[in-house]
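Ticket 4471: requesting a sanity check on a complex prediction with uridine 5'-triphosphate. Repro inputs:
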Amino acid sequence: MLEKVKAKLKEYDQEHLLKYYDELSDGEKKALLEEIEATDFDVLNSLKNALHAPKRGVITPIESMELPEIKEKEAAFRAKGLEAIKKGEVAAVLLAGGMGTRLGSDDPKGMYNIGLTKEVYIFQRLIENLMDVVNEAGVFVPLYIMTSDKNNDKTVKFMKEKNYFGYNPDYIHFFKQEMAPASDYEGHILLEGKGKLATSPNGNAGWYVSMHKAGLSAQAIADGVKWINIFAVDNVLQRIADPVFVGAVIEGNFVSGAKVVRKVARDEKVGAMCLEDGRPSIVEYYEMTDELMDAKNEKGDPAYNFGVILNYLFSIDELERIREGNLPLHVVEKKIPYIDENGNFVSPTEPNGYKFEQLVLDMIYEMKNCLPFEVVREFEFAPIKNKTGIDSVESARELCKKNGIEL
Ligand code: UTP
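Returned structure tokens:
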């Protein structure tokens, strides 16, 4: 096995990964060799590809469904959405595999307590919001929780200890996402221990493949699920399996939908919905040129004015259709703890390398169509990315207060 691994490392110019091999115990040696064998080093190719990134297609505006229209049709959408929920056709997937490095807690993000006078955990807030729908529909919505190798055990234990915050555990299923190796700026995979590669969760778009590998998508299909609502762990005002949103997507014969908020500034740092070569897509804030920022749509409004909030609805048939296709890997600069050349563990305070992630925007691009569905930011968008400042625990607390949520 050692010879085989050495050959693989040579091929990918990663021979440094065995630098501490002789210092390891027999068990550690075996584990390291197995890990190297199992790791897909082809992800490193995306580093080369990123430097010659293919140009984006032609970006044009996409029509969003805006608040006045939603208000007018709300009752019909709600009835349609509730009908699907009652039939068990709508499931939710909580994306909780991220590392939450910006928040700087060692625990999974959902375990963060934002309470002031009592305990209010992020997971608790999400379950409370979902319970609104459960109470309205009179049925539990199947909730799949995606974790990663790094936070699975803590997440599962915490949820059990907290009695799933009152949710029916028969409707909660956990699965782990895949991991990808992380590298330094030269493309050398980092070691996080003398016998362990630095790995990180592979982004927020691998969830359906991971769900499939865990046998859970087959189970969902057998149970009659037709729609999956995915959402980020860190938005404490997240409306989950929102009947009005679900109803609007079904009524409009769409195969997917994206909750969006009106941007507060033309250069706000959110991805905006668009069409790319006629297909639904997202233009990232750093790709927004002056021309795009000033562009107007047919109504004379800013053309790329609706930002995504990581709350999407997908038809399960469409997810099955695209499951086998490979989504591109994005190269993301991050802080990656590692073992330096002297064998010391370093926890960097600045980004020091690359992680490789699949992003959900590429899933949207694979969809036949997508309905951008406007929601009121103050009621539905309170992301927690940082401890203080923008998108922080502080700003989320303020927004919770505005929504009458006791903390
Ligand atoms: P972010 O892009 O904010 O990443 O995730 P993060 O890892 O949580 O935080 P930072 O960047 O390290 O501070 C957006 C959502 O996608 C999920 C996160 O859990 C969050 O709900 N996510 C992200 C995954 O589930 N897996 C991933 O690999 C990455």
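Notes from triage: The longest strand covers residues 306-315. Leaving this open until the requester confirms.
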